[in-house]
Amino acid sequence: MKKTIITILFIFCTGLFLTADFNIFELSENIEVQSINNINLLRPCKIYKNKKIKNYKDKTLKDGKNISGKLTVYFPKEEAQYPLILISHGWISSKKVFLNMGRYISAQGYVVAIFTSKKMTRPKHWLKSFESALDVMLNKNLEEGPLLHNKIDTSKIGIMAHSMGGAGALAFANSHPMIKALVGIHPYNGASKFIENIGTKNEYLGDSFKDIQAATLILTGEKDITAYPEKTYKFFKNLNEDVPACFLSFQDFNHNDSLDMCRNLFSGGYSEKTFVLYSNLAKIWFDAFLKDKTDNLLYVKKDSKEFKKIAPLLYMNARREHESYPNYDSRNLP
Questions:
Q1: I need a labelling partner for 108 at 20 to 30 A (CA). Which of 24, 32, 172, 296 fits?
Q2: SS3 of 284, please?
Q3: Once rounded to an integer, what is the mean pLDDT over residues 3-29?
Q4: What's the CATH code of the domain at 108?
Q5: How far apart are CA 107 and CA 29, in angstroms?
């Protein structure tokens, strides 16, 4: 009896330690990962500058129709099955902006596949590219080989995308119930007339996704003039009301601040602060809804002490005239 009590106390205290040890403002890797078709980048994000990775090449990680070039895949070295995360970029961009974030998420225990959409000037273009990327990865999971064979738990699939890719990801998940978790980073639902003349108002896909089964996290910022946050909020409002969902809008985060790309005055660019926070929020979300690890979900629950750590960063003051929208909203969080 005494031994049982000691064991229970050890497990309880260890659990508390592990939860308290997580810092949402710091990057922490748990698992050694390897890569396929990795690219050595000379870009603003330096988190892996001096950290080599075992890389393999696979020319078959492509489809030739809807994806430009080959997918880059990061996967845990240890033999086991892991959830799959598909990641893509936004308008006139490439997979390169997400390689470092993808590698970080993989180090939390995921197979991560990052791709460049062949067409990338309308949100609808990502419907076919997500379909192709998913097919490529599921086929690789079945194919005999030393790297990805039976590496993916096909019951646990998530997707993450930026801007137009984010709108495409929402629409893709809406018609694919096998997608269990989704992170939209500044998903595009329209902006100024100037921007909409270039990228449309997103009228083809729209912003109503009543059939979506994926737990959905939407991240945006008041500073974003490329994808207006008040229009992005409509994605959240029009989701399936039964799925877990969370919306966060930050005061000073611009459209591209979480991406590994050079800054510009209009839409921003790499900010270590934003990169780290968004990387960890994505980790928290995927952990909760693909692994049932919900302890750190407290960071997106408004009444928790953990939420108070990110609350000062949320949107409080309007930067321009626009219809009212909240800096936070959520529902059905476990």
A1: 172
A2: helix
A3: 59
A4: 3.40.50.1820
A5: 5
Name, in order, each residue with C-beta under 8 angstroms of 155's C-beta and a sequence gap of 6 or more. Answer: 180
Could you give the number of structural domains in the chain?
Answer: 1
pLDDT in tens, 241-297: 999 999 999 999 999 999 999 999 999 999 999 999 999 999 999 999 999 999 999
Alpha carbon distance 289, 18 (integer Å): 19
The contacts of residue 24 (CB under 8 Å, 6+ apart) are 277, 280, 281, 284, 296, 299, 306, 309, 310
Q: 93 by DSSP, 3-state: which?
A: coil
Burial class (CB in 10 A: 0-12, 13-18, 19+), 281: buried
Longest dimension (CA), the chain: 72
Which residue pairs from 298-305 have beta carbons closer than 8 angstroms and sit at least 24 positions apart in sequence? Answer: 299/24, 300/217, 300/246, 300/248, 300/330, 300/333, 301/330, 301/333, 302/328, 302/330
Q: How far is CA 198 from CA 71, 164, 229, 235, in A?
A: 28, 12, 18, 21
Q: Is 157 helix (H, G, I), strand (E, B) or coil?
A: strand
DSSP at 235: H
Mean pLDDT computed over 1-9 = 41
Burial of 320 (0-12, 13-18, 19+ CB in 10 A): exposed
pTM: 0.93
Start-end of H helices in 177-303: 193-199, 229-237, 272-290
Hunting for tokens 């993916």 — which residue is that? 152
Listed in order, strand segments (DSSP E) in 109-244 are 111-117, 152-162, 179-185, 215-221
Q: Do residues 75 and 153 make contact, with C-beta atoms less than 8 angstroms apart?
A: no
The length of the chain in residues reads 334
